[in-house]
Write a structure and sequence with these properties.
This protein has 408 residues and is α+β, with helices and mostly antiparallel strands. The chain folds into three domains: 10-132, GAF domain (Beta-Lactamase, 2-Layer Sandwich); 170-303, Reverse transcriptase/Diguanylate cyclase domain (Alpha-Beta Plaits); 310-388, Arc Repressor Mutant, subunit A. 47% of the residues lie in helices and 13% in strands. The protein contains 15 helices and ten strands. The chain is elongated. The model is unreliable at 1-10, 183-187 and 393-408 (pLDDT under 50). It comes from Gluconacetobacter diazotrophicus (strain ATCC 49037 / DSM 5601 / CCUG 37298 / CIP 103539 / LMG 7603 / PAl5).
């Protein structure tokens, strides 16, 4: 085949399944046989299965002339394959990619042939757009996966992003959205992942998304405000709104873990690692929480050992007298509140709704049970670390009433 033939060869092939769908749908309203031929004139779809795979003479003429060809009954050889009818070129992107033919008297079926051609070209365009969108989606996902896995992104990533219309210069922060089981033994469905990915990656959100597994999606979301500043509170609120909207729209039970922005080469990969560690620590320590933020969990994320080796157990040991007994839940809550309020007696008592003397009693109980001195910095640090590395307590029975006397 010479060079000129190569230049006119269509670059798009018609999918036989789609071609058959065009035929089947058209023949429900038009009482004649319909054929769809590829660029070589071969019948790839027909209302007459016996004709599949045959070379259609009219289609060959259409491809050669790049225009409609009609065959009158008197012109059709009685002993050949050519049959009377109207054959029209199918164009896609300005190129003739095939042909559609209707069998019958041209003067009768000509108007119907044009309608079938228009419907067929519309279906071909929609299919091509769908393929293009799927390809772009796949390329965007591959870009995201490369960004979160490569400590030092190669220049090719920037070139790929530019082709997709993605600007990698603005700082982004990584998050992981996890679909929790519908039941204890349930798993997420593929449709769930598709719906969630579509929502999280909506153009107006500015997010880059990619599935990590059957139950997890990575999200790279803009980290800076319009003024180019880093606002943790704004990003936290944005993440919470995104989580709430996703849960409402999909009906799924979701958990979100947000890392922190990291500047410089490989920053998105490090941000993803932070989000992954935050999710892992949050699963163990706060299983009921649906929004996990590294800024709130910096200490447990840095110190929590996924292998739960002896060092983790040693760090948790000072608090074990309170966590091992459900009746000590009020003391555990008191210690957490006391530390959260900077060890200020007045603020802690107000937060707990206690009299100062009742608070003092509880703190002495904590000292006695845990064998610590709350005036010693070392003991306070030990309890602080243990508290942040201990999973949220879920007592298996109601806690006993607070034994502390209220002294007025």
């Amino acid at each position: 085949m010479d060079d000129g033939a190569h230049e006119t060869m269509p670059s798009v092939a018609i999918d036989p399944a789609l071609a058959q769908a065009i035929v089947d749908r058209s023949m429900t309203v038009i009482a004649c046989n319909i054929n769809v031929m590829d660029s070589h004139g071969v019948i790839i779809a027909s209302g007459d299965p016996a004709r599949l795979g045959q070379v259609h003479d009219g289609a060959l003429r259409v491809m050669a002339r790049q225009e409609a060809v009609e065959i009158e009954p008197r012109a059709a050889p009685p002993d050949g394959d050519a049959r009377p009818g109207v054959n029209l070129p199918l164009r896609l992107g300005g190129a003739v990619v095939g042909c559609v033919g209707l069998t019958g008297v041209p003067g009768t079926i000509r108007p119907y042939a044009e309608l079938v051609r228009m419907a067929a070209e519309t279906m071909l365009e929609q299919a091509q757009q769908s393929r293009t969108l799927s390809r772009e989606t796949r390329l965007r996902e591959e870009l995201v996966l490369s960004l979160i896995r490569d400590e030092a992104p190669i220049p090719a990533l920037a070139a790929s992003a530019a082709r997709l219309g993605i600007d990698l210069r603005p700082a982004r922060v990584a998050a992981i959205v996890e679909i929790l089981p519908r039941t204890q033994d349930g798993i997420a469905l593929v449709g769930d992942m598709h719906r969630l990915g579509t929502l999280l990656g909506a153009p107006d959100q500015g997010n880059l998304v990619a599935p990590l597994s059957l139950t997890e999606i990575a999200v790279l979301t803009p980290a800076l405000t319009a003024r180019g500043t880093w606002d943790p509170d704004r990003l936290r609120e944005r993440a919470q709104r995104l989580l709430a909207r996703a849960q409402t729209a999909t009906g799924l039970d979701l958990r979100l873990a947000l890392g922190r922005p990291v500047e410089g080469p490989g920053g998105m990969a490090r941000s993803y690692q932070v989000a992954r560690a935050t999710l892992a620590a949050g699963r163990r320590l706060h299983p009921a929480r649906r929004a996990l933020f590294y800024e709130d969990m910096r200490l447990p994320v840095l110190l929590d050992d996924p292998l739960r080796d002896w060092r983790t157990q040693e760090l948790r040991a000072p608090l074990r007298p309170l966590t091992d007994a459900a009746r000590h839940a009020p003391l555990l809550r008191t210690l957490r509140t006391w530390l959260d309020h900077g060890m200020q007696q007045r603020a802690t008592a107000a937060a707990l709704g206690l009299h100062r003397n009742s608070l003092d009693y509880r703190l002495r109980q904590i000292e006695r049970l845990c064998g610590v001195d709350l005036t010693r910095s070392a003991d306070i640090v030990a309890l602080y670390l243990a508290l942040h590395l201990t999973p949220d307590a879920v007592p298996d029975r109601p806690a006993d009433p607070d034994p502390a006397p209220v002294v007025t």
